[in-house]
Amino acid sequence: MKRADEPHMLGNSFDWRRASAELFATTIFVFVTCGTIVTGGSLTYKEPTAGRLAGVALASGLIYAALQYALLGFARDIGTAREAGWIVGHMNPAVTFALALIAPKTRINPSRAALYITMQIGGAIFGALLVSGLIPDARSRDLGATLLGEDVSWSKAFTMELLLSFMFVFFSLLVYNRSRHDQIAFAPLLSGLCLSVMTFVALPISGASFNPARSFAPALVAGQWDTHWIFWVAPLMGTSFAAIIYSFLTPIRKSVD
């Protein structure tokens, strides 16, 4: 049965509280991720040194895991902890879109997905503006925008983004599986570690986006639109494939709402 405080319609306070969590979480995530790229490149701008790659990868993964843990507590107040990975804490329009494709499993209907994505993009823009306003010379370093590596073709970058977006969402769906209550406490840490490893691999190739909002915000504020379409199309395709395959491999469990 559907919970009385969660009607399947847009506009209830339950939806707006979760959407607000998306806005704040995405703001923090983009500020930390892009800010680390900018400050980490102060001495080695655009040079993929091992130290810089490790710093950006760790910052991205750690802040993602920390926000997920914070939102687990938030989920206990407005829902259930075992649903936190699907209800709040996406911080990524591609993830929300993918989960909307398998709505019977995730309860992310189209109106809810549209609200989340709007908040994610808004939060990402706020985060990019914070980087621009607080970090000296951030604009001269493109605000940490996702850029292709030197001599990297668009096809290689596209494939990298698509493949790793697929891997990240498929892995996250597995660790946040609602039937595995015993592992939910470790899901944020595992997802954060996965993001760190992926970022370390992809940063010198595609800029390590996997997230349209994270790429759109610094591109908008800095006016850096080179090959920007890759960072929408590839993550949307990769995450959608992951969700569809996950849905095919796992049976639908009716929610006890």
Give a summary of the structure in a few sentences.
With 257 residues, this protein is mostly helical. Helix content is 67%, strand content 0%. The protein has helices at 13-40, 50-78, 84-87, 93-101, 103-106, 110-134, 154-175, 187-206, 212-222, 230-249.
Helix fraction by DSSP (H/I, runs of at least 4): 55-70%
Count of β-strands: 0
Give the helix tally.
Answer: 10
Q: Report how far the terminal alpha carbons are from each other.
A: 5 Å
Mean pLDDT, as a whole number? Answer: 83
- Spans with pLDDT under 50 lasting ≥5 residues? 1-9, 80-85
List the helices and strands in order.
Answer: HHHHHHHHHH
The share of residues in extended strands comes to under 5%
- What characterizes the major β-sheet? none
Shape: globular
How much is the radius of gyration in Å? 18 Å
Secondary-structure-based class equals mainly alpha
Descriptive overview:
By secondary structure, the chain is mostly helical. The protein has helices at residues 13-40, 50-78, 84-87, 93-101, 103-106, 110-134, 154-175, 187-206, 212-222, 230-249. Helix 6 (110-134) packs across helix 9 (212-222), helix 7 packs antiparallel against helix 8 and helix 7 runs parallel beside helix 10 (230-249). The longest helix is centred in the N-terminal third of the chain and has 29 residues, at 50-78. The chain is globular and about 45 Å long.
